[in-house]
C-alpha cells in the first residue's frame, strides 16, 4: 500500500512538473516579410515583434526574402530584424526562402500587394503546416498577396486586388439585417477610401479574440478595406466597420477582423494596419496579441482589457519606441 502511494505521488509530481514546464513555455512566432507595397513594412515587422514579446508570452523570429521590395523609406529598420541583408528591387521570387515552419506555433505574414510568389516547395510546406494545425495570421495587405495561390486564398477567406474578381468567390460583408452575406455579383475585389479614423464594431462577442471588447471603439487613421472577395469558407466575422466606398443607405459592414478554419489550423485575419499610426492604436495592438495567441493555441488566456483601450468616442494610441 505504501509502495503504491509512493509511486502515485511520484507520478503526480512528474506530470505536475511537465504541466508547469508547458505552461511556462513561450508561444513560438515567425514573422515573414520582404515584399510589400506598404513601405512601412520594415518598421511594422519590428513593431509586431516588440508588441508580442513585451507581453512575456511570445518568442518571435523573422524570416525575410533575399529580394526586397519597397524597403527604402524605412530602411533603417531592416537591420533590427537580425536577418541577412537583402537586395532591393522589383518583386522577385526568392528560391532560397524556405523557413522551417514546423518550428513555430504560428506564422504572421507582413507581405503585401504584388509580392512575388513563393517557390512551389515553400508553398507546399506552408499548406501542410497550416492544414496540420499550424497557426497563421494575415495582417492588412497580406490579403492582397498571392491571388493565384488557391490554398492561400482559402486560408485568408477573402482578399483584394491582384486581379481578383468573381472567379475567386463572392464578396463577403454583413448586410442591413446584420447577417453575413456572400454576394456573387460580378466585379473586382479590393477598394478603400482615404485614410481616416473609423468606428470598429464588435460583431462576435463570444469568440476568444473579441470576448470582453466593447460594442464599438474608434480606430486611429487607417484604410478601411471594402469589396473583399474570395472562397469565404469556414470564416467567422469578429468585427466590422463601415467603408466610405459604399453608399450609407446600403448598410453594408465590412469584415475587418476574422477567424478562419483551414484543416486543423486556425487563421486570424485583420484588414487593419496600414501604417505606423494604425499600428500604434491600442485596439490594433490588443487584437494582434489576442489573434496571434488564438491562432497558435485556440484560446486567449491573456484577455484582460487594457485601461487605455479606445472608446466609441475617442481613439487611443501608444507612441512606439524600440526597446533597447
Structure description:
The protein is an alpha/beta fold and 324 residues long. The protein has 6 helices and 14 strands. The strands form 3 sheets. It has a 10-stranded mixed beta sheet with strand order 3-2-1-4-5-14-13-12-9-10. Strands 6-7 form a two-stranded antiparallel sheet. Strands 8-11 form a two-stranded antiparallel ribbon. Helix 2 (41-53) links the parallel strand 1 (27-35) and strand 2. The longest helix has 23 residues, at 2-24. The N and C termini lie far apart (58 Å). 47% of the residues are buried. Mean pLDDT is 93; it is low at 1-21.
- CA radius of gyration is 20 Å
The outline comes out as globular
Strand order of the largest sheet: 3-2-1-4-5-14-13-12-9-10
Report the sheet with the most strands, covering strand number, pairing sense and barrel closure.
10 strands, mixed
What oligomeric state do these chains adopt?
single chain
Mean pLDDT: 93
Q: Uncertain spans, ≥5 residues at pLDDT below 50?
A: 1-21
Number of strands: 14
The N- and C-terminal alpha carbons lie at a distance of 58 Å
Structural class: alpha/beta
- Helical amount: 10-25%
Determine the number of helices (DSSP H or I, runs of at least 4 residues).
Answer: 6
**What is the string of helix and strand elements?**
HEHEEEHEHEEEEEEEEEHH
Amino acid at each position: 500500500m505504501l509502495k503504491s502511494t509512493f509511486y502515485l505521488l511520484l507520478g503526480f509530481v512528474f506530470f505536475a512538473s511537465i504541466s508547469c514546464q508547458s505552461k511556462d513555455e513561450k508561444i513560438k512566432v515567425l514573422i515573414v516579410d520582404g515584399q510589400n507595397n506598404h513601405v512601412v513594412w520594415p518598421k511594422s515587422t519590428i513593431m509586431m515583434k516588440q508588441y508580442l514579446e513585451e507581453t512575456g508570452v511570445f518568442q518571435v523570429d523573422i524570416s525575410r526574402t533575399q529580394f526586397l521590395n519597397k524597403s527604402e523609406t524605412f530602411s533603417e529598420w531592416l537591420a533590427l530584424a537580425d536577418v541577412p541583408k537583402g537586395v532591393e528591387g522589383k518583386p522577385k521570387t526568392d528560391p532560397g526562402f524556405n523557413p522551417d515552419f514546423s518550428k513555430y506555433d504560428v506564422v504572421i505574414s507582413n507581405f503585401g500587394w504584388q509580392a512575388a510568389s513563393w517557390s512551389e516547395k515553400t508553398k507546399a510546406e506552408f499548406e501542410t503546416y497550416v492544414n496540420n494545425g499550424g497557426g497563421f495570421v494575415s495582417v492588412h495587405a497580406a490579403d492582397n498577396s498571392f491571388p493565384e495561390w488557391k490554398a492561400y486564398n482559402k486560408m485568408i477567406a477573402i482578399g483584394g486586388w491582384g486581379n481578383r474578381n468573381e472567379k475567386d468567390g463572392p464578396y463577403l460583408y454583413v448586410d442591413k439585417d446584420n447577417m453575413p452575406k456572400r454576394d456573387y455579383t460580378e466585379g473586382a475585389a479590393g477598394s478603400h477610401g482615404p485614410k481616416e479614423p473609423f468606428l470598429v464594431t464588435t460583431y462576435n462577442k463570444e469568440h476568444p479574440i473579441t470576448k470582453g471588447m466593447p460594442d464599438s471603439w474608434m480606430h486611429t487613421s487607417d484604410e478601411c478595406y471594402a469589396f473583399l472577395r474570395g472562397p469565404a469558407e469556414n470564416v467567422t466575422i469578429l468585427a466590422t466597420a463601415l467603408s466610405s466606398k459604399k453608399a450609407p443607405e446600403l448598410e453594408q459592414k465590412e469584415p475587418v477582423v476574422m477567424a478562419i478554419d483551414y484543416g486543423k489550423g486556425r487563421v486570424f485575419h485583420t484588414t487593419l494596419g496600414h501604417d505606423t499610426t494604425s499600428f500604434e492604436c491600442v485596439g490594433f495592438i490588443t487584437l494582434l496579441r489576442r489573434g496571434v495567441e488564438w491562432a497558435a493555441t485556440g484560446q486567449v488566456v491573456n484577455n484582460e482589457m487594457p485601461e487605455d483601450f479606445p472608446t466609441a468616442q475617442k481613439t487611443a494610441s501608444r507612441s512606439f519606441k524600440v526597446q533597447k
